[in-house]
Structure prediction request, 349 residues.
Amino acid sequence: MGNKGKLIVVLFIVMSISIIISSCTGKIEESNNEPVSKTEFVLGTVATIKLYDNAADEVFSEAFGKLKEIEDKMTINEGNSEVMDINSRAGKDLARVSDETFYVIERGKYFSELSEGKFEISIGPLVKLWNIGTKEAKVPTEEEIERRKALVDFKNIFLNEDEKSVMLKKEGMVLDLGGIAKGFGVDEVVRILKGHGVKHAIINLGGNVFAYGNKPDGTPWKVGVQNPKSPRGDYVGIAEVVNKTVVTSGIYERYFEKEGKRYHHILDPSTGYPVENTLAGVSIISESSIDADSLSTAAFALGIDKGIELIESLENVEAVFVTKNSEVHITSGLKKNFKLTDLNFKLVE
Prediction:
């Protein structure tokens, strides 16, 4: 990643992000009314930070530097990351890691348990087998899937809190933090912005959007909720949020087609195949992006009934569920601040 051709593509993508920031009305108190935006390719996706105040170069440098640091620690695709070290020692030995990597794995294991394994940070063997999102994507054989399924189980992740070390109990297990690391990255950028006294900002890390603070005119941000049937940028409705993240998982993100059948990237650990249910996508709205990142996958994989039940059981977490037959279901806390804008969809009360 990082060549000129890819940069052109990702810059085009970032122009299509589903974030609606309506024009400010009335007098704006901030001395700098025009936002300053910077974009880089990191954590395997496009990252854009838009600051409406205190837009110093050092803020951008620190924020993007932190994202690159997280990538270096948690990637499983290149280099000598801490997660790759864990995977290389699977079934053999403990690997000592940084506090950050330990925290992300710990949270990942928590959400794996909370979702009864539908969100699964040890999904790596199946992810590598399908290779969805790469040129090597394929439909594996039943035998291949069964062999890899046996290596997927969050209960076989051993964590030593005192020594900040991790061990995968079975040889061949593979941790994959792709479903949670971006969320952690967004939360770390938020921490950095707070440290620099920033009051208004938009963070977009490959669709993990954080509406930081409120708009400069004091009103809530208006964030478009992704239409999971369309390319990124189209939205089914608008949520008004202040200091919250919006994260979507769905069938639109990464997929390939074989003999007329579409295979998307959200895999069901219990079957070894892409999740099959009535949902096209789930958007989570919460105060923590690492939570929303995990929960969007978990709720999608659980299906609409169990997914809604899970989200309703959690404090300060809301969700928008979009079905394949164009129904939109929202959790109870969104009834006053979500507006359906695409009349091709039906809001189910």
About this structure: Confidence is low (pLDDT under 50) at residues 1-32. The radius of gyration is 20 Å. The domain at 4-8+16-69+180-348 is CATH 3.10.520.10 (T-fold).
